[in-house]
């Protein structure tokens, strides 16, 4: 009787162990299947993105806009670059930042030289005729800068007839036309700002962040003339036939803001949240 009881209990134990192993295998298989399905979905989305290079998000900038995007030891760095790298990571792609002259940067995008422009481009109605824009990844404003020694220009009304410097093919060209027809265009705002102290320019219209950073980083003896003259939303530009990529980038930006990653990057470069 005792022997039969022993064999019965042993049989129950064996069956229980077999059931547990089966459950573990089932759970492992389910997890593996889910992972594989997720990976396949990611690959499918990446395929639909119409990327210039498989597995990479190639995004362009001028590389001349410190601290937003510039070269340090032959490597592209800056706020725009970090934002681009974070977006790339979140949509499962390798970041591939590149440079292109600003005056032809939209043509380069439309010619499929790169997938996106993440280079502090203002989203405007005119540009929207050629490309699509993501939700803003920072908000700034056009600002007038003058030499610290300039005593003649006290308000924007004093800009009438003055020589104003702007970056080529920027929205600031139209802003400058409101005050003067003496406009000098430069490949970079930094070059224009450097012409203020020696008096080669009377004023420069550029992004407020760029001007203030130039004052801090380069020690340029310049000053902002009052508050911003125009609020600007800066966004990622994408070709119009790439809706899947646009949706992925928008989602990535939203997630960055929600989980605090965006604020960390912004605080690192500017000491403030550029979306607030």
From TrEMBL:
Gene3D superfamilies on file: Periplasmic binding protein-like II
Keyword Lipoprotein: yes
Protein name: ABC transporter substrate-binding protein
InterPro entries: Iontro_rcpt_C, Solute-binding_3/MltF_N
Residue intervals of the Solute-binding protein family 3/N-terminal domain: 56-273
Annotated keywords: Lipoprotein, Palmitate, Signal
Secretion signal, residue range per the UniProt entry: 1-19
Residue ranges annotated for the Ionotropic glutamate receptor C-terminal domain, each copy included: 56-272
């Amino acid at each position: 009787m005792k022997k039969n009881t022993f064999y019965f209990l042993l049989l129950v134990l064996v069956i229980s162990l077999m059931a547990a192993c089966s459950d573990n295998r089932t759970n492992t298989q389910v997890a593996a299947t889910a992972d594989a399905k997720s990976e396949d979905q990611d690959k499918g989305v990446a395929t639909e993105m119409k990327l210039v290079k498989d597995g990479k998000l190639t995004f362009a900038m001028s590389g001349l806009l410190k601290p937003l995007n510039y070269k340090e030891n032959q490597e592209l760095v800056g706020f725009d670059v970090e934002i681009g790298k974070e977006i790339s990571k979140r949509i499962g792609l390798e970041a591939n930042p590149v440079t292109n002259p600003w005056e032809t940067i939209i043509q380069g995008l439309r010619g499929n030289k790169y997938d996106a422009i993440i280079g502090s481009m203002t989203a405007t109605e005119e540009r929207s005729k050629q490309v699509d824009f993501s939700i803003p990844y920072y908000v700034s404003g056009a600002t007038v800068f003058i030499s610290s020694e300039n005593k003649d220009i006290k308000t924007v009304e004093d800009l009438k007839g003055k020589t104003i410097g702007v970056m080529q093919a920027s929205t600031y060209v139209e802003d400058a036309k409101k005050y003067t027809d003496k406009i000098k265009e430069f490949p970079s705002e930094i070059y224009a700002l450097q012409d203020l102290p020696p008096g080669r320019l009377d004023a420069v219209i550029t992004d407020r962040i760029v001007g203030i950073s130039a004052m801090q980083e380069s020690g340029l003896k310049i000053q902002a003339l009052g508050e911003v003259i125009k609020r600007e939303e800066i966004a990622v530009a994408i070709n119009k036939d790439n809706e899947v990529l646009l949706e992925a980038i928008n989602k990535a930006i939203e997630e960055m803001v929600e989980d605090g990653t965006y604020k960390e990057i912004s605080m690192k470069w500017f000491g403030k949240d550029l979306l607030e």
